[in-house]
Write a structure and sequence with these properties.
Blueprint: E1 10-14, H1 19-33, E2 39-44, H2 46-52, H3 54-63, E3 65-71, E4 74-79, H4 84-94, H5 98-104, E5 105-112, E6 115-121, E7 126-129, H6 135-144, E8 150-154, E9 159-163, E10 166-171, E11 174-177, E12 180-183, E13 187-193, E14 198-203, H7 211-223, E15 230-232, H8 236-254
Helix pairs in contact: 1-4, 1-6, 2-3, 3-4
Amino acid sequence: MSLTDVHRSHVVVFGVVGTTEERAATADAIGSTAGHATRICLRLDCDGIGERYPDVVSRVRAAYDRVGSVGAGYDEYCASEPTDEAVAALRDLLAIETWHLAAFVQHVRLEHDGDAFLLYNADHRQFDVDGDAVPAAIESIESALEGITAGILPAGTRCEWECNGRVYELSPPSFCVETACFDLAALRGVDADAETRTIRLEWDDSRPSNRVLSGLVGLLERLGPSRPTELRFDSRESFREARAGFESVSSALTS
């Protein structure tokens, strides 16, 4: 397994939260989980970050050893143990502005005995965890996300079914219909009717406050497939599995 691979048993899904709140929750979740690591590694563009956040880069360089270049302007820095200084520098790094984080931090990786058990990709907001290898990581993340519109869910296919010639798959952090996949972060409500074997989904339709970004999101929505709002099932078994899966996602994002 590559150092950048992780056996994904769980995935963190954020609902509709402010960017500042999400950054703070991410920093808390990864920072608290770092205590279970035997090594913390960061892939980042220190030159790019240093232009805006020279103090953050100084703290990273003081607490981490530069392992070497990994290409495309990124270097790898690792701390052989989760010292207070290393964790504090990690939290500071994760708290920088969202677009800077996505541009200059390729990933954050927590390892235990040589294997990665947490991999955070800032660009895609992808947050993968191997809770089988380090079960305590799940508890730490759950505690850090308490009170936040976010949850940690079992990864992989929760249910899959076919109806009217179309294949549906619920696989956090996405729900897919054929080849079109939708981010479950926008799921707001689930209403299941056992008598008619129907599940109605409510999605968040808010857009960024920035007018340019809002226009871009609107354009992509018009060009792409619409989010499914009503699901029907040919069998009671597939209905029950889907209801349980969607309700677990909804519960995680609203608790």
